[in-house]
Amino acid sequence: MGKIYSTIDDTVRKFIEAQPVFFVGSAPLDPGGHVNVSPKGLDTLRVLGPLTIAYLDLTGSGIETVSHIKENGRIVLMFCAFQGAPKIFRLYGQGRVIEPEHPEFSGLAARFPEHEGARAIILIEASRISDSCGYAVPLLQYEGERSQLSAWTHKLGRDGLKTYRQEKNRESIDRLQGLEKTAG
User: How many domains does the chain contain in total?
Assistant: First the structure.
């Protein structure tokens, strides 16, 4: 039986910080819109407080999570144990998008490794923290981080990232607003 936690206690924090990948879920208000689930990695998550989590949002082909958060704030993060004892944690909450021009960005960004492709920080206040058994999650062996995203953003450079974001990150597939500015 799953358990509900009032805060991100040491048990929860240690578990989520040990996972090399986590999943982010979001959805627009429009029932005809697209629900989005995105895998995240590359050491981009930080626990900031008993109910506060942040992750570094890296440039990619879509902007769904950013657009959904700007529209309605709803977000869920899921962490699965692919090694060791089975366990799943979900953190539900309200998110805010902190873009590079925002006064909070530099202080939050200092908590993460530098990534050329960083386009925003997603700051989340958890309203529900729960676990479940994870018995159906397969055992997988972690081999390491992929290098393709970092190599791709480095190859594009500042101007290339700016152009890419203008073309791909201005709005979601449901035509919701994406990034405010698309600076590289």
Answer: 1
Residues 26 and 167: beta-carbon distance below 8 Å? no
Residues 52-84: pLDDT tens digits?
999 999 999 999 999 999 999 999 999 999 999
For residue 126, give the nearest of 3, 1, 43, 5 by alpha carbon: 5
In a domain, 131, yes or no: yes
- pLDDT of 184 higher than 70: no
Asked whether 184 and 159 are in contact (CB, 8 A), the reply is yes
Q: Decide if 181 is inside a domain.
A: no
Q: How far apart are the first and last CA of the chain?
A: 46
Percent of the chain surpassing pLDDT 90: 96
Q: Domain of 126?
A: 4-136+145-168
Q: To which residue do tokens 């989520």 refer?
A: 16
Q: Is 76 domain-assigned?
A: yes
